[in-house]
Amino acid sequence: PKGKGPQGKRITLKVAKNSVRVAFNGRRRLDLSKMGIATFPKCILELADVEELDLSRNMLKKIPNIIEKFQNLMWLDLHSNQLDELPAAIGTLHNLTYLNLCNNKLKGLPEELTLLRNLRTLNLGLNCLETIPTTLGTLRELIELGLFDNALTIIPKSVKKLPKLEKLNVKRNPLPEFAEEEEPIDTVKRIESLYLVEKKDLCSSCLQTCQGERDELHKLEDVTPGPSNKPSFPLLVAPNSSARDNQEEWRMK
């Protein structure tokens, strides 16, 4: 189709202007998500005064340094693209409180990312990160941090101890401290039946049987039990009042 190809869909200024929406919080959002964009559209520099920019679910491989023109940005969504790096100019967006970089191909983070001192939500999940800088601990306003589905083997203490951090998602990383412990082997075998009658309510035959099974229980810790031919008394699980009424039936059995 016309306008599509290796370079993706071409966004015109008219299309961009028609994509500006007013968010529920009153901010103006330029929503260019799911547009098939492969190259950052320079025409949107004419709309650089918006507070929110959504370029998610496209085919972007690079964000140019001209992103610094969007100085009013408080909310930036770049998730589900093909980004393998971020520009240093990302650190100039000092008003950012929300940054979503999930589901890209990031292998590292620019040092300038730590200049976003007002950032409250940062999503770096589903990338190719093997390390994160300790200086990420300078983002002291962070409330939510997503690091899931990466290749991280360590989380810096400076990040774990962020003063306002409420949600830290590090699932599905090869982190030693989150390795599942093997389930301990239970050497004590569990009984299958529990008799709830008093000794005085049993006939001599039943009492002898119960005494024998009780003696067997003391040996089960070291001995694996085999099939038992001992008689079963399922009605003995009845309360004591019922046990008295049914003694004759048990004797007959």
From TrEMBL:
GO CC annotations on file: cytoplasm
Keyword Transmembrane helix assigned: no
Keywords: Leucine-rich repeat, Repeat
Pfam families for the chain: LRR_1, LRR_14
Domain Disease resistance R13L4/SHOC-2-like LRR as annotated: residue spans: 89-221
Coiled coil: none
Residue span of region Disordered: 218-253
SUPFAM superfamilies on file: L domain-like
Membrane-spanning residues: none
Entry protein name: LRC18 protein
Species of origin: Struthidea cinerea
